[in-house]
Structures are given as C-alpha cells and as structure tokens.
Predict the structure of Peptidase M16C associated domain-containing protein.
Amino acid sequence: MLLRSLTRFSSNASTSLFFRRFPRSYFSRSSPATGRNIRRLSAAGTGSELFLRRGLRLLPAAASGCLSGQFSRAVSTQTAPSYPGQDEAEKLGFEKSREEFISECKSKAVLFRHKKTGCEVMSVSNDDENKVFGVVFRTPPKDSTGIPHILEHSVLCGSRKYPLKEPFVELLKGSLYTFLNAFTYPDRTCYPVASTNTKDFYNLVDVYLDAVFFPKCVDDVDTFQQEGWHYELNHPSEDISYKGVVFNEMKGVYSQPDNILGRITQQALCPENTYGVDSGGDPKDIPKLTFDKFKEFHRQYYHPSNARIWFYGDDDPVHRLKVLSEYLDMFDASPARDSSKVEPQKLFSGPRRIVEKYPAGGDGDLKKKHMVCLNWLLSEKPLDLQTQLALGFLDHLMLGTPASPLRKILLESGLGEALVNSGVEDELLQPQFSVGLKGVSDDKVQKVEELIMSTLRKLADEGFDTDAVEASMNTIEFSMRENNTGSSPRGLSLMLQSIGKWIYDMDPFEPLKYEEPLKTLKARIAEEGSKAVFSPLIEKFILNNPHCVTIEMQPDPEKASQEEVEEKNILQKVKASMTDEELAELARATEELRLKQETPDSPEALKCVPSLNLSDIPKKPTYVPTEVGDVNGVKVLRHDLFTNDILYTEVVFDMGALRHELLPLVPLFCQSLLEMGTQDMSFVQLNQLIGRKTGGITVYPFTSSVWGSDVPCSKIIVRGKSMVGRAEDLFNLMNCVLQEVRFTDKQRFKQFISQSRARMENRLRGSGQGIAAARMDAMLNAAGWMSEQMNGLSYIEFLHTLEQKVDQDWEGISSSLEEIRTSLLSKNGCIVNMTADGKSLTSTEKFVGKFLDSLPEKPSGGQVTWDARVPLRNEAIVIPTQVNYVGKAANIYSSGYKLDGSSYVISKHIGNTWLWDRVRVSGGAYGGFCDFDSHSGVFSFLSYRDPNLLKTLDIYDGTGDFLRGLDVDEDTLTKAVIGTIGDVDSYQLPDAKGYSSLLRHLLNVTDEERQIRREEILSTSLKDFKEFAEAVDSVRDKGVAVAVASQEDIDAANKERSDFFEVKKAL
Ligand SMILES: [Zn+2]
C-alpha cells in the first residue's frame, strides 16, 4: 500500500510454536502491495529464508515501514480492564467455560459460551494496544466451485446496517486499522481486524459482524456475479467471456507451478474428505456454481452456532460481550456445528503415485523442468502438543536452514534446482509432511525419490549433530522470546494458532502454552539424547507410514493454450445455444452490471460507515528516539527502546566504489557470505554457530532514489540480532561473515544460481507486477536501474548467462566476489544502527568499537557514478499465464510536479476508488494499484492477475479526467486523510522502529520534513485533487508501459495498436 513497505527483516514473523507456514489460504485483497520499498528491499537477503519459509507470511495490508513517517500510534491510556464476573456475563447471555492466565503471552484468557446459540468466544486481555478481533466459521466445501472463497469476498460487499457496495473498501479508505483482510482456508474462513485506536477498533468490529451475519450478497445476485463469475458479452456480435474477481484470482493461482503442486498434494493426500477439493475454486469448476448453492452455504455455515470469535488486547472485556450479544441474541441455535465437522481421512494401506502436467513456457530445456515431491499424511488422529512440538523441531532440524541435512543433501545432489513444497504442515486436521525438488531432469526423477528416502533413513539411523540440535533449539527459543510478528499484530498470530486446534473442537488454550512442553522436550533431549527423541518420529511418521503419495509434475508447453481453447469452446457452445433475444439480453445485463459497478455510492449511504474525526488524529508524528554519535570515526545511530533484552543492529556499507559490471553479482555475493564457510569452518559449522549464538544474520542490498538528489542511495545492509548478553558473539560473527568467508566453493555457488533462478521465475509468474514495476523504474531512474539489475528481468537474464559461465570461468567469478568485498568493506561511509534499551546500548558499545577497528579505512577502487538506465520503451514480457500484470509509469517531478503531502492522500484515493472500481470490480482483475515514490518522483499504475491488457492501460489514462471530474464531500475527504495517516503511522514493533529510523537517515528524511508532510496530508483539499490531475496526465502522455502477459494477449495488443509493445521472452 501507499507509503508502506515490507521490511524483510521485520516480516520474520516467528510467531508461533514453530515458524508455521501460512496455510494455503486465500485473501480477500490481493496480497502483494506494490509499495515502492518492497521492490527494493526484497532483493536478495537469502539469509532470512528460514524465517520466510516458516513465518506467518501474511500481510498485504499491514506491511510496515514507511520511509516518510514511521512511528507507532499514540498509546491509549486506559485503566486496567475489569473482567466480567459470572453475573455480568450471564446477564449478557454468556456463560464462562474456562479462565486461565497464560504466561507465554502475559494474558488473561477467558472462554465464554453464548448460551442461546452455543457460539464460543475467546476473550484475551493484556496491555497490547494493537487490539485484534476475529470471527471464524468452519466452512468445509464439498466441491471445487470455490463457494467459501467467493463468499468470503462477497460478504464484505454490503450488509444490513452498511448497505454500500463495499463497506470493506470504505474501511480501507478511512480507518486506522493495523490489519484488515479476510482469508479462506481449506476448511474455515477467517475475518480478522486490528487497530490500536479503540473507537476505530469497534467501528471495524461492527462492520465485520454485520457483514458476516447479515450480508446483502445473499439477496443480490450481482455481487455473486461480480466476485464469483458471470458471462460477459459487450455486444451480441462479440464472443462471450467469463469475468469475476475470484475467477481471475484463481486463474493466477493456477498459473503457478508451485501452487498447482500444493493443491494436488492436499487433494491427493486426502481424497475422501473435504480436503479433496479446492476451497479457493478451480477456474474450471467455478462456473458451475449457482447462486442458490451459494446462498444455502451462507445460511448453513455463517451462523453463530458455527462461529468462533476472538478478542485480544487492552480494551474493556465487558464491552466485548455487550457488542457481541447484540448480534448473537438475534439467532437461535442451529445444527451447523455438527454438519460442518471435518471428517478425518483414513490412512492408506500402501503408497500411491500421481503424475500431472503443469503449464510451462515453450522456451528452455523442458526436460529439466520436472518437479517431484514426496508427501505423507502423518496421522489419522490429531497429535498431542508434545509430539507436534517435537515434529516441528524435527522439521527445523531437517530443513530449516541451508545447513540442515535434508535440505543440504538435496540441493547439493545437483538433481534439482530448488526445494519445493517442503516441510511439516500442521494447521489442518491431520498434519502432513512433504519434501521435494523442482527443476529436475526427466530421467532423474527416480533418483530424487531414492535420495529423499535414503537420506531420511540415514537421519533415522544416525541422528543429528549436537551442534545442529543446539542451534535449532536456540533459534526456536530466541524466536519465541522475541515474539516478532513483523508487521502483523501479535494478537492475530495468537488467534491463528489457537484456532488451529479450536476449530476442530479441541482446546483453544493449549496452542498458546508452549513453555512446559518445550521444557519437557528439552529435558528429554538432554537425558535421552536427540536420537532417541527424533529417530522414532522419522520411523513412525515417515519411513513406516504407508500413507505416502509421490507426485511428479511434468512441464507441458501446450497446457496453457489448451486450457484457453477448452474455455473458448465451452463459451462458444454457450453462445451457440442462446437465441438472439437472449444474447441481446446478456449484452444488456453486462452493461447494467458495469453501470452499477461504476456508479459510486451516494454520500448518504457512505455516511453510515462509522469513521473517526480529524480530531481523533494526533497532530504530530511520534518520533523514534535517535541519538547520533560516533565510534572510532564511524557514525552510530542509537535507538533507546524496550526490546525485551534483545539487541538489533544494522551495519551499512556504501556501494559507491563498486564497478557497474559487478552489480548483478551482489545478491549472490550476499548469499555467499552467509553460506560458503571460512578457512576454519565449513558453511554448516558457520551456520550452526550463528544459530547457536544469535537470532540470525542477514545481508542484502538496499537502493533508493533520494528526494532532491541525483545520486541514488545504494548500500549493503548487514542485519543481526542477539540477546544483549551475546552481543560480542554477534559482532564477532558479523565480522567473520564479512571478512573471513572464502569464495572458493564453486559447487555451492552453482546451487545459489539455480535457487535464485527458480525463485525469480516463481516471482515472475506469481508477482509479475513487481517485475513490471522494477522494469519501469529501471527506465526512469538510476536507483531503479540498480535494483532491477539485482531483482528484475535483467537479473533473470544475468543468471542465465552466469549459469553458462560458471564452469568456464569460476576463477574470474570468484575474484569478482572478492572484488565486491574489498570495494564495500571500509569504515569510510559505514554507518551502524543499534536498537535496544539504553543500558544495553551502553554495555554493547565496546563490541561495536572492536568490530569497526577491524575494518579497512578506505575501500579499494575509486568512486563510481550510478546513472545507468534501461532504454525507455513499452515492453511486454511473455510468460505462460492465464492472467496478466499491467503497468504504466512516469516521473512526475520531471513534468514539474512539486512534492506535497496531499499526493499520498490522492494516490490512495485513486487506488481505492477509480482503480478498484474499474480495474478490479468491473475489469475483473484481482487488484489494481497506484504508487507514488516520493523519493524518485515515479508515479506508477499496476494491475495484478488481470484478464485485460490495453483496456487496463486505457483506464490508467483516464485517471486525470477522473480527478478533474471528482466531487468529494467533506466526509469522503476526511476519510481519505485519516486512511493516509493510518498508513503513515503504521504500527511497528521496536526493531522495525529502529530500522525505519535508519532508512530515513539514509534517505535524508528529517523529522521536520515528516511534520511538514503530515500537515500537508491533514490539510489536503479538493483543489489538490484537481491540481494533481495534471501530474497524472503526464503519466498518460509521457509514461512508459510494461506488461507481464501471455503471448496471445500481447499479440492481440500489438495487432490492435500496431507494435505498441517491444516483446521480450522471459521463461
Ligand atoms: Zn480471494
């Protein structure tokens, strides 16, 4: 979102008992925000893969880290909440089932039962200002028409009290939410919201409660058609097509091989229960869904008797029950809770094997593009917490880090290019374990299967290294202590953990209490040895488990076009079966739906969505305490913040002396630092040492334009964290990584290349808008060019060449890596950033001094100038896909626009109104965004999983006229302003506060400037909107377009507008 960025580090959400993977669920909003800093920060940084793989990888909306203003919201000054006594709860219609103090999250948790309906409520109270509410229904589907997913989208489109087109969007516009989204799991649907502002929080709660229990969509077929599917016919002479937000969202999902594999896995492991179908919807089946079935599903499952409700935070627990009783009392008990039960899949008596095709591009050696994955359903009955904990631990030991044996052996075998779909998945009724490789040669598939089995056998026979066990234990304990959920609210991560059991009628408290079982596990490992603990698990759950499914995925260059032809055939038949009258009627209905979608809600209707007043908004940004000092001639920033005894630090080096040709090697250089080993230590030992002593170290490049300067900011950032008592180890290890690692391991380097290629290709298919955005940036400014060299299409091309070169000239590459090091490492231009409490900052300073002393004074090589660009032209990047990503951008500073805080309000408004309505709602894309990078001046439009191409560009071009014709009343304006402040003030944990303060320092964003921008935001007027139209017109007139799209759509576009796009092949 506007003004927000996803700081890689802070998304290391180590939320739970074990870095849980976020389940295969679907979001109501398209996930990848296109915030400018995502594009930059996401480069490289492979060291954090461990966390990213397991972490709670949410968070579209709530990504943290705004450069132009980052601070947490005002702390609410509430008195300690009084807890409802039995009498009080009784009066409100609830009975208290259980009450406990949970020391792990310092919370009092009470489980209530609504007597009339049986609805259960977990009410968790503590001093966390970031309050969370969620309502969860068990929604097991019986087919793959996507009912739960379409319903999840649709209930947010207007309700009894809020009869708007989309109250959800009104909340996005004008609330201070710290989280706002909805997700569909294979068997449940969650509606969570969060805010630090109590009034705002209860506004959100009320809109969500009304939405789920009294949505308009069950009486209004238009919403079903818009979010689900409908036939579109613009003119009786044209072809009929399918449209629908979920339909296109799922087409995007089904264009990604990894996703296809994940889906097939789940269905193959559980063919006989609800997991045998896709709750998200298979694009082939979605058009089979009828409105009647859709309504019936809501009636049956969206009922209090089938609901579980979660409250968390520092608000008044009595008030929670009051709000709920108003809704719940309107219902009688229903049998939904029984009919929604998820039946377990019976274990197979023997292994199975499945071979499937996936759509692949026509280029490259398809023989090397197979995927193979082994999967086990671990148990028929749910596991006890102790076993689950041990399995999570085992998972981390086998696969969690680059040094973990199963991961390492598979990657080193050279049999495939990257792991796929690997790890323990324990968020559904029955846990499963998967491990596999992609990028496998067709004749090596068998070998991969054998290697997986023999490695597991060996691990069961020989056990794990003591150092490895210690490293895993420390990593897990560290992350529990840190409880760093990144940009997502802590209360949300706890809710998702608790729901993981609660949804199956098990104990909702248990998943929150990990200390005892962890202690027991630790004691067992100490007494019996790790082998006695883990070997039986491998034997029982994997080696001797007959419920094993091997899945092989074969690339099929025809599949995408075949599917398109099949869809066309069906649609042609539909058309042929219709009379002229029916066709005319369909064209009329299409037009009517579009008109309805494009007609804004009336101001009166909009007023019903509760919103804050400007007086609720703090006038000043809250500042991150920052003290700028000097240690041995190097600038040191210190942030005195409570961090629960953890030290967070960043060491920043300048890329000012790096030769241009070496730039694309930088991401692999960073990975090599962490994964290649030193003279005395293998990379495994180094990795384990980092795991044992610290909370992790990452290294990655950072580039950005700087406002008012032609010189881009281009840095390498080394981030680390440890307990304060281990600060010396942390700095020693950072020093070791930077100075002692040797670039001599060609085989490992080859693995890095193929992993990076696999990752980039996945990105191209799944987040093409990021690739398009990076490409446009690379045409428009030097920082963008740099970033694209390391994380864009140019990087993909570079990796292809490098792969050829590595065998011929390893010496040359190795010395280039060495040259990168010497051109970076120096005290000159180095900055150190430290975040911890004041006492710890003082006590750790001597280690900083020692670290800096070991650095050379000056870098080797002379100062270079970064001023390159990719040639400016419209480009279309061809990939095998069913949906496109379409972008257009220009630098609006060069057309004379002067930076003003109102630009944030206006771009947000464009995204939430014009683009949402046209690109998403009537265009049928999953998402449409715009983004203004105030540092560079680049204003860009982007779409996500978009069935259109030129049409979307036309919508972008109409933005100026939209702004000129805009008539916003005071309320709408206020909402837009408050929503923008919500972005600017996004909630941050202490490490993220310290980190954003560093970024602001690097980009010369002063506190004075932040105050000025804030005042400009607060005083935004309609006049600003009209004036901004001119800036947006310059994107229309001078902008460059880049699309990531299918060959067919590109050909059609180039035919319609003669050779509009220069065509580039990428896959
Ligand atoms: Zn969705």
